[in-house]
Design goal:
This protein is an alpha/beta fold. It contains 11 helices and 10 strands. It has a 6-stranded mixed beta sheet, with helices on both faces. Helix 1 runs parallel beside helix 3. The protein is globular and about 50 Å long. Pfam families: ECH_1.
Length: 251
């Protein structure tokens, strides 16, 4: 099981649960999370989804061993939904989505915050968008959503530098709403989730729909641009070299 699901007081908590891989998304986890979000969207007993991770990582992003296998292994079998399916589910999710970043978030573990309605982050957590260090392009409409959230220059630094962003910096930028001590993170995120879940679901969904509708065309266009750039750069000399170096056994 790579994803655990728990319901309480109309809040469905999805916990990324691959601690041995720092909750990196392999094809199985992409599919499981996509299915879980779609199920929550359809379930009238669920008003809010809270997404977090287990262990010391929120998510280490896409499993880079699988990314390399996609390039080098002719027999690689992609999942049913994969990365693009998860981003579809996030973009279409009609209910409040709360992220509780318990540890470091890399790649999709950071860019997923562009789809969060509220984001909480532990004081010890950090974020990184490693695209330039891997020789690839941005993902998950982050080239559009991050400038909307944090301003162009903050977004440019995050997407171009491949440097770590502290919880305090993410809060200053406006990428996360509240920073909590690690032991307080989930209780605080859950407390706020339950406040929202106590409101009429139809009203929650109407608020979200009216807030996100103006962004839909921009998200779709950004994803098309990003996917085209990603396809162009994936497997390039820079990308292949970065992945090979990353996946080499460390002494």
């Amino acid at each position: 099981m790579t994803l655990t699901i728990a319901d309480e007081n109309r809040v469905r908590t999805l916990t990324l649960d691959r601690p041995e891989a720092l909750n990196a998304f392999d094809e199985e986890l992409y599919d499981a999370t996509t299915v879980a979000l779609r199920a929550a969207a359809e379930d009238a007993e669920v008003s809010v989804v809270l997404l977090t991770g287990t262990g010391r990582s929120f998510s280490a992003g896409t499993d880079l061993a699988e990314m390399q296998a996609r390039i080098t292994d002719p027999g690689f079998t992609p999942g049913q939904y994969g990365f693009l399916g998860l981003v579809d589910a996030l973009a279409e999710f009609p209910k409040p989505l709360i992220c509780a970043v318990n540890g470091f978030g890399i790649g999709i573990g950071a860019t997923i915050l562009g789809f969060a309605d509220l984001a909480f982050m532990a004081t010890t957590a950090r974020l990184k968008c490693p695209f330039t260090s891997l020789g690839v392009a941005p993902e998950a409409a982050s080239s559009y959503l991050l400038p909307q959230l944090v301003g162009r220059q903050n977004a440019a630094w995050m997407l171009m530098s491949s440097e770590w962003i502290s919880a305090q910096e993410a809060h200053r930028m406006g990428l996360v709403w509240k920073v909590c001590e690690p032991d307080d993170l989930l209780p605080e995120a859950r407390r706020h989730a339950e406040v929202l879940a106590s409101r009429p679901l139809s009203s929650l969904m109407a608020v979200k729909r009216t807030m996100t509708a103006p962004l839909a065309a921009g998200i779709a266009a950004a994803r098309d641009r990003e996917n085209a750039c990603f396809a162009e750069l994936m497997g390039s000399a820079d990308n292949a070299s970065a992945l090979a170096d990353f996946n080499q056994p460390k002494s």
